[in-house]
Design brief:
This protein is an alpha+beta fold. A six-stranded antiparallel sheet has the order 28-27-26-32-33-34. A five-stranded mixed beta barrel has the order 3-4-5-7-6. Strands 10-9-8-11-12 form a five-stranded antiparallel sheet, with helices on one face. A hairpin with an 8-residue loop joins β6 and β7 (131-141).
Length: 748
């Protein structure tokens, strides 16, 4: 009988023969037969228990070595463009090994998150990677990540979804919990095939901490929607190495009084403007309006690490407590920001306006500017209203008065053009220093806001017209007209409150404005404004010019916010190329990928909008949680077969009244008229009706708010009893007051 080999001999043989590592292969290699196989089996079990081996099916492997054929997940390319992957399963004691992927002719393109089966070859004495890999076949993309609250159980745990209305749970095995603690917020991914019976399984991939912590609200949205919030080292290094622009090849604009007007807490200033009286006798009462935009294209060049990351993010994302920027702070908050009294590079447009706001001509220059002042909207408005601050006072006659004069002219052109005039106050969540919601306010719309919007819109038009004339590829901002189905729904809503949106005509924004004007000042005004907004299509980016319905403009593109939108950065490069100013314009790859980029950044914009909305919902649910049991007035903003949505007057929070709590009768849902009708009483519940509700339940982790309907149009209702928790009297006094702060942005 052959002698039983030592543990070291077995381990050395397995490393040399990873494809022949079953108990039978090992026994055959060492000539072990008969009863000696029992001793071999015991030795393999000991090696496995000590962590030297792991059993895959009937094979034993060194856990610190990957099998020759492994399932991998792709990482993004490094700074040299090399593609790396990591194993999906790793039980070794060392660092997770990296695999350099070697592509062959005919292999499909691999992207970050893709999963694949690959053949691996060990690479000794290499720091950057431990294996090279060749694709065998792709097996799908990275599974959708999920966010939830981890609940510890005897078998391991469960993850309860935080998505509003999801109501899903996943089982987590004890060895897949990743040391998560009960009640923690975790990020996980589904593991194993989806079964038809029982709960799906998941494994924890990251612990995110206490879900009730004040700063966790926006963090949840960032992870839930996959928004990149950490810059790679190569991107940070490139931003840190950037130097201020020189005057070479630039027009000196430092004598122009180009001021910035932004929210009071703005950290980045990417647009400035000024107006001069036009001295041309052929243009009496006219203006020369200048709009200067930060020259981000000078710092973020095509193909650079900064460019790749900016494109990946698509745009900045704004939350009440933080901003996830498109560019590192060295650029967004410093070199690219048009700070007061600092020389900065810009791309500027001079526009000649008639006394009625018609744009007669325009020209673009690449220049250097120095802003004499950075004012807030409130400060600029107060100055022209006769109450200037100390620093704004010297600017009233020479800078602000001409600028507001140009706005008066632009307003005439706007009234003639008739863009869509929605009146929807912007909700603003104010946080205390501790990160809790101190109050929910509504932003006041000032002429200073409208002035900047009109200047930016006109500059965007000028940019689009210039590039069209020069036959330069660009991305347009497209907003298509509403679909016939959505217009029919809007007509039904208008009809239900005694208003009319005429049929049988080519729809123009002026027709919608007539409806909005007819509703102004009435109880139904908010309903009509919301319904009109919901009838609109989502704006997007496209290389094809299909006009902008909402602004009533034929040619429109985004030029004025390159610090926070990748579309604007591309347009700046297009202007550089079109004018031949330098070599940092559009690259051949930029042009080739224009359609792909348009689709991508349209998606990142929607991603940010959803993340911002979800964060607002969670903050509002948290704010309202101390007022459970209180009664509120509101208006029905939505009707569905499962219940009605109510927008509360005080905070504009949206809550759900489940249909099961509406009454003791059956309610029929009519999707066309958006109504619920009681089969016994004939009670009709429809959009826009005034209601009184009781706050029944809030779920801050999901943003869910449940309400009980008490009164409908001043009539009390008999509702079904609900089991709920009622807040104590001490909780009904509302939130504690504290110092407040906010993060805001300028909107166009």
């Amino acid at each position: 009988m052959a002698q039983i080999p030592s543990q070291a001999d077995i381990l050395e043989w397995i490393r040399a023969h990873p494809e022949k590592s079953s108990k039978r292969d090992i026994a055959k290699a060492f000539g072990i037969k008969g009863a000696a196989r029992i001793d071999l089996k015991q030795m393999l079990k000991e090696l496995q228990a000590e962590g030297h081996l792991m059993q895959r099916r009937r094979r034993f492997n060194d856990p610190n070595c990957l099998p020759p054929v492994s399932v991998l997940q792709m990482l993004g390319p490094d700074s040299q463009g090399d593609m790396f992957a990591v194993p999906l399963e790793w039980e070794g004691t060392g660092h997770l090994p990296k695999i350099l992927m070697r592509s062959r002719q005919g292999d499909p393109a691999l992207g970050q998150g893709d999963r694949l089966l690959a053949r691996l070859t060990p690479v000794p004495d290499e720091d950057s990677h431990q294996y090279t890999g060749q694709l065998i076949r792709a097996i799908g993309t990275n599974p959708k990540r999920l966010l939830g609250i981890f609940r510890l159980t005897a078998e391991g745990g469960r993850i309860v979804a935080i998505d509003k209305g999801e109501g899903k749970e996943w089982l987590v095995a004890a060895d897949a919990a990743g040391e998560a603690k009960d009640g923690e917020l975790v990020e996980a991914e589904q593991s194993g095939p989806k079964g038809r019976l029982g709960l799906p399984r998941a494994r924890v991939v990251e612990r995110l901490g206490d879900p009730s912590a004040p700063k966790a609200v926006s963090l949840i949205a960032i992870h839930q929607h996959g928004i990149p919030d950490a810059f790679p080292d190569a991107v940070m290094a490139q931003a840190d190495a950037a130097k201020p622009a020189t005057s070479k090849g630039r027009v000196d604009l430092t004598d122009l009084p180009l001021i910035t007007i932004d929210p009071a807490d703005a950290r980045d200033h990417d647009d400035a403007c000024c107006a001069l009286l036009d001295e041309d006798p052929k243009n009496p009462g006219g203006f020369l309006l200048w709009v200067a935009i930060a020259d981000v294209a000078h710092y973020v060049t095509a193909g650079s690490a900064l460019d790749a990351e900016a494109r990946k993010r698509g745009n900045s994302t704004y939350f009440p407590d933080r901003v996830v920027p498109m560019l590192p702070d060295r650029l967004s908050g410093d070199l690219c920001s048009l700070h007061e009294g600092v020389t900065r590079p810009c791309i500027a447009v001079e526009m000649k306006l008639s006394s009625t706001g018609e744009k007669l001509s325009h020209r673009f220059v690449r220049g250097l500017m120095r802003s004499p002042a950075s004012l807030s909207y409130e400060e600029a408005q107060a100055a022209v209203d006769g109450d200037p601050s100390e620093r704004a006072a010297p600017l009233v006659d020479t800078v602000l008065s001409p600028l507001f004069g140009a706005y008066a002219a632009l307003k005439q052109a706007r009234e003639a053009r008739q863009p869509l005039e929605l009146d929807l106050p912007e909700r603003k969540i104010i946080l205390s220093d501790s990160g809790k919601v101190a109050s929910v306010n509504f932003s006041e719309r000032l002429d200073a806001h409208r002035l900047i919007e009109e200047c930016m819109v006109l500059a965007n038009v000028a940019a689009a017209e210039t590039l069209i004339a020069k036959q330069q590829p660009l991305l347009f901002r497209v907003h298509e007209e509403p679909s016939p189905e959505k217009l029919d729904s809007l007509r039904e809503t208008a009809k239900s409150v005694g208003l009319v949106l005429a049929k049988g005509q080519v729809l123009q924004t002026r027709h919608l404005n007539q409806l909005l004007k007819a509703a102004a000042g009435k109880d139904e005004a908010e309903l009509i404004n919301l319904s009109t907004l919901r009838s609109m299509t989502q704006a997007y980016y496209s290389s094809q010019n299909m006009s902008h319905f909402g602004l009533a403009l034929q040619n429109y593109a985004h030029f004025t916010s390159p610090i926070r939108r990748y579309a604007d950065l591309l347009l700046h490069r297009a202007l550089v190329s079109a004018h031949g100013w330098a070599t940092d314009g559009l690259s051949p790859q930029d042009i080739e990928m224009l359609d792909e980029t348009a689709k991508h950044i349209s998606e990142t914009e929607r991603r940010s909008m959803l993340a911002e909305r979800d964060t607002t919902d969670r903050y509002l649910a948290s704010f309202m949680s101390e007022r459970v049991g209180n009664e509120f007035s509101g208006r029905i903003s939505g009707v569905a077969r499962f219940g009605i949505f109510v927008k509360l007057d005080e905070t504009a929070a949206d809550g759900l009244v489940p249909i099961r709590s509406l009454g003791r009768e059956y309610f029929e849902h009519d999707a066309d008229s958006q109504t619920l009708r009681g089969t016994d009483s004939g009670t009709v519940i429809s959009l826009g009706q005034r209601v009184v509700v009781r706050l029944a339940e809030t779920t801050p982790t999901t943003g869910g708010i449940l309400l009980d309907l008490l009164e409908l149009e001043d009539s009390k209702l008999q509702t079904r009893p609900r089991q709920r928790k009622i807040a104590s009297a001490s909780n009904r006094r509302g939130p504690k007051k504290g110092k407040s702060r906010k993060v805001t942005r300028k909107r166009q």
